[in-house]
Amino acid sequence: MRARRSLFGLLFGLCSAAIVLAAEAPPVTIEADHAVFEEQQGRSTYRGHVVVTRDGLEIRADQVTVVTDADGALQRVQAQGAPVTF
């Protein structure tokens, strides 16, 4: 009986973890002076006083390039500047 409880606890824990991982990621907010959107390539470039925020994290840079996949999911954020701060 004890082994069943342990197995049940393990399965419950794994299911709970899967639910947390499946939750949507917090939104990304980007502010900039200028933006160029290249939808076919899945790339957006932001220039001039760029501020990227997500779930309490803030990145400040001169230029930020955002790459998304075919479904529009965020793949990579690349920041350049002198300096880049977060």
Q: For this structure, what is the CATH homologous superfamily of one domain? A: Lipopolysaccharide (LPS) transport protein A like domain
CATH topology of one domain: lipopolysaccharide transport protein A fold
* Beta-strand content: over 45%
Q: Can you tell me the CATH class of one domain?
A: Mainly Beta
Order of helices and strands: HEEEEE
Apparent shape: globular
What proportion of the residues is helical, as a percent range? 10-25%
How many whole angstroms does the radius of gyration measure?
20 Å
CATH architecture of one domain: Sandwich
| Class from helix and strand fractions | alpha+beta
Overall pLDDT level: 78
Total helical elements? 1
What is the strand tally? Answer: 5
Give me a quick take on this structure.
With about 90 residues, this protein is of the alpha+beta class. The chain has one helix at about 1-20; strands at about 30, 35-40, 45-55, 55-70, 75-80.
